[in-house]
């Protein structure tokens, strides 16, 4: 997977009825997406709902945003397990196929090679002009978000049964089914392309919005204590 380069032979995207999903390895080169990512993590409401006291809102300049995305997602997720976050952008009628279908439509298409190049444009110029609304992604929780294992802790399943779903959407787009549509596609892609067997997730206890999203995706509450955090609920979903 390329990093900050224009090598389309190593790039791909996922199309859903309303959105285009682009791996961070490509999206990190877009000024527009970095700006959206920084804006989200500087938003107090967004951070409080999604992360609680664990991750207070913070303001980054562009260099800090790029470094954070590269270190936290590309190096720890994409380069290690070949999966990670996807930038979620609106499908514009001037660039992508027209259509604005219901979020209940589970169809998605993986664009590679010439199909990707046609949609992305030379040097990803079309994608760079997209309107980004958030992100949805997957990561190996055992090497990213979970605390280190201690003596006496139960033995964990294999990493492909410990794949954590994560997502974030700009508050101005809340309530439009973005997470549900994007996450369904990302999870199905990971099953078909990466052999993922089980998904996990964690939410702040007060974050009923995310809890409802996970339930709609098929997640159920689990009695695990992987994150060892009393303020959080843990969720699980077996791949099908």
From TrEMBL:
Q: Which PANTHER family match?
A: GNAT FAMILY, PUTATIVE (AFU_ORTHOLOGUE AFUA_3G00765)-RELATED-RELATED, N-ACETYLTRANSFERASE DOMAIN-CONTAINING PROTEIN
Q: GO terms for molecular function, please?
A: acyltransferase activity, transferring groups other than amino-acyl groups
Membrane-spanning residues: none
- Any idea what this protein is called? N-acetyltransferase domain-containing protein
Q: Which domain of life is it from?
A: Eukaryota
List each copy of the N-acetyltransferase domain by range.
Answer: 157-240
InterPro entries attached to this UniProt entry: Acyl_CoA_acyltransferase, GNAT_dom, N-acetyltransferase
Q: Which PROSITE patterns does the record associate with it?
A: GNAT (PS51186)
């Amino acid at each position: 997977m390329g990093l900050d380069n224009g090598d389309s032979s190593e790039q791909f995207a996922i199309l859903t009825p309303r959105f285009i999903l682009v791996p961070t390895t490509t999206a990190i080169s877009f000024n527009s997406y970095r700006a959206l990512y920084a804006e989200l993590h500087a938003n107090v409401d967004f951070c409080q709902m999604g992360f609680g006291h664990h991750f207070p809102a913070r303001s980054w300049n562009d260099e800090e945003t790029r470094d954070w995305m590269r270190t936290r997602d590309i190096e720890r997720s994409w380069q290690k397990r070949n999966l990670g976050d996807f930038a979620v952008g609106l499908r514009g009628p001037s660039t992508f196929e027209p259509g604005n279908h219901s979020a209940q439509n589970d169809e998605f298409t993986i664009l590679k090679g010439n199909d990707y190049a046609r949609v992305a444009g030379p040097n990803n110029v079309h994608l760079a002009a997209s309107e980004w609304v958030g992100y949805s992604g997957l990561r190996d929780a055992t090497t990213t978000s979970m605390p280190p294992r201690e003596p006496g802790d139960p033995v964990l399943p294999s990493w492909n049964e410990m794949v954590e779903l994560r997502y974030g959407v700009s508050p101005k787009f809340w309530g439009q089914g973005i997470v549900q549509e994007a996450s369904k596609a990302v999870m199905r892609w990971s099953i078909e392309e990466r052999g993922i067997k089980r998904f996990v997730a964690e939410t702040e206890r007060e974050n009923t919005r995310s809890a409802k999203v996970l339930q709609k995706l098929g997640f159920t509450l689990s009695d695990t204590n992987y994150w060892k955090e009393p303020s959080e609920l843990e969720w699980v979903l077996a791949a099908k």
